[in-house]
Amino acid sequence: MISFKNVELVKKANIYFDGNVTSRSFIDGNGESKSLGIMMPGTYNFGTQEAELMEILAGEVEVKLAGEDTWNTYTADTSFSVIANSNFDIKVKTITDYCCSYIK
Amino acid sequence: MISFKNVELVKKANIYFDGNVTSRSFIDGNGESKSLGIMMPGTYNFGTQEAELMEILAGEVEVKLAGEDTWNTYTADTSFSVIANSNFDIKVKTITDYCCSYIK
Predict the structure, then answer these.
(1) How many A-B residue pairs are in contact by the CB < 8 A criterion?
(2) Distance CA B67, CA B24 (A)
(3) Does the keyword S-adenosyl-L-methionine apply (chains A, B) (predicted)?
(4) Averaged over A40-56, what is the pLDDT?
(5) What is the mean pLDDT of chain B?
(6) What domains does chain A contain, in order, with CATH numbers?
(7) Which among B7, B18, B38 has the least Cβ separation from residue A7?
(8) CB A55 within 8 A of CB A29
(9) Band of residue B61 on the pLDDT scale cut at 50, 70, 90
């Protein structure tokens, strides 16, 4: 079972879209900000402040980055990156477990 | 912002009831097993193996322990305990953020 060691884990959840997207923020052992989250099926738009690496742990999503015309599909053990101060559309096809890393 | 320090956090989510209840397992700095979770509105029954302390961080639930006739209401900053090898019925009235501690 893969785990993050030596983590600082925020107690309170982040709740978005009426709870259809929720996440837990933490700082990993290297001092990097990350979150582990769940997205229920639906279509969402997320803005970024920092650049993000979104790793799909389970589930299936289609993603269209700002300024692009193409939807790309991501499933377990695939990931996509989003630049800072941007946004992306995401269609969650099945309940999706993800890990987001915020890149300074 | 309250956080748990020096935690080992499991990467993969626990997903129950078609994703209406999800949680993240971790071991806190004292070596105690806990999980942080989200329950969407609905009615569920949970079994326990170890005894549990369920702390409600946000939301509202009604709980009926096995062998009892009474539903009790819990909201933010309240908690209830469940004995080992038992079960409880829970009606989640609004999306609920919780912390569960497993008692050895």
Answers:
(1) 91
(2) 29
(3) no
(4) 98
(5) 97
(6) 8-103 (2.60.120.10)
(7) B7
(8) no
(9) very high
